[in-house]
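ok new one. same drill as before - structure tokens go in, u give me an amino acid for every spot. 162 of them this time. try not to just spam alanines like last time pls lmao
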């Protein structure tokens, strides 16, 4: 549970605190983008590790759970696998492509015209990244709600002691 809450909490902090403050307080959009991009890479690493830990621990609980509890564990695992897949896609495909576009634009993406192919591709990828991160957050909130449900109704989550 801690692994998932750390990931979801990090996503919330990133989206609603770090990114807006960086773009509001730093001297240029370029500097803010560097901070936000570097932070997102670290957040992805936290998510990929935490998501794997969560899946393994939930799998162990699933094996030891009575049948009524298994459905909840299966949903949690499925949502987490979706989160992991999207996060890996963003980390290893979208972010490197955005960095390549930034380099092609001479280092500062805001310094080139909107008609530049590098800028257009960057903006397309940025939009995709925002939508995917939002979807990961929604999935994570779903997992947290399932975790809260388990805590409220222990009879649905009985675990066999070995």
């Amino acid at each position: 549970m801690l692994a998932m809450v750390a990931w979801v909490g990090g996503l919330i902090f990133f989206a609603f605190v770090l990114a807006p403050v960086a773009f509001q307080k730093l001297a240029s959009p370029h500097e803010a983008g560097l901070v936000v991009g570097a932070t997102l890479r670290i957040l992805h690493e936290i998510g990929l590790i935490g998501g794997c830990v969560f899946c393994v621990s939930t799998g162990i609980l699933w094996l030891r759970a009575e049948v009524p509890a298994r459905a909840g564990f299966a949903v949690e695992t499925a949502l987490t696998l979706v989160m992991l897949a999207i996060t890996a896609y963003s980390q290893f495909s979208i972010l490197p492509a955005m960095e390549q576009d930034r380099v092609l634009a001479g280092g500062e993406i805001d310094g080139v015209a909107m008609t530049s192919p590098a800028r257009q591709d960057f903006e397309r990828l940025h939009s995709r990244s925002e939508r995917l991160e939002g979807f990961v957050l929604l999935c994570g909130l779903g997992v947290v709600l399932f975790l809260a449900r388990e805590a409220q109704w222990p009879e649905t989550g009985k675990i066999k002691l070995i």
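Residues 2-157 form one domain. and btw Residues 15 and 134 are 9 Å apart (CA to CA).
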